[in-house]
Design goal:
By secondary structure, the protein is of the alpha+beta class. It has 4 helices and 7 strands, in the order αββββαββααβ. 28% of the residues lie in helices and 34% in strands.
Length: 136
């Protein structure tokens, strides 16, 4: 899904290195609802995101799985990467402490909570599978 090109290489570099991606769901009234989220990309065509149990995005996703994801652009408005995706709430998925790559990536941000505190506050796992990609 991610092309073998210079653009694809930039996409892979950003998926591996960025710490925040914007996840946009759609509210009941059809209004886009963007939220910055932490994510883990493990080299495939999806990302893993942990959520608060009361996150409105989960209500939106139960109504429809279609989402978009994007990174911030450069200061000049370039380096655009936008994904279309389908989200799935992963009932019974491991908590964040059971996903070493996630903990390694956000250890410094989780430090104030501790892993168990983070797991308590963000217990719901979500997988977004990429279905489209555009950018420049």
């Amino acid at each position: 899904m991610i092309p073998d090109s210079s653009f694809g290489e930039r996409v892979r570099r950003r998926l591996a290195g960025e710490r925040v991606i914007w996840l946009t769901t759609v509210g009941a009234d059809g209004t886009p609802q963007p939220n910055p989220v932490w994510f883990l990309w493990e080299g495939g065509d999806s990302v893993l995101i942990y959520n608060r149990a009361n996150a409105r995005r989960l209500v939106h996703l139960r109504r429809g799985p279609h989402v978009s994801l994007h990174f911030n652009t450069s200061e000049t408005g370039g380096d655009v990467v936008v994904f279309k995706g389908e989200a799935e709430i992963l009932d019974g998925h491991r908590l964040a402490g059971g996903v070493p790559g996630y903990i390694d990536k956000y250890r410094d941000r989780i430090a104030d909570w501790g892993v168990e505190g983070f797991e308590k506050d963000y217990p719901i796992a979500l997988r977004v599978r990429f279905t489209g990609l555009r950018g420049f």
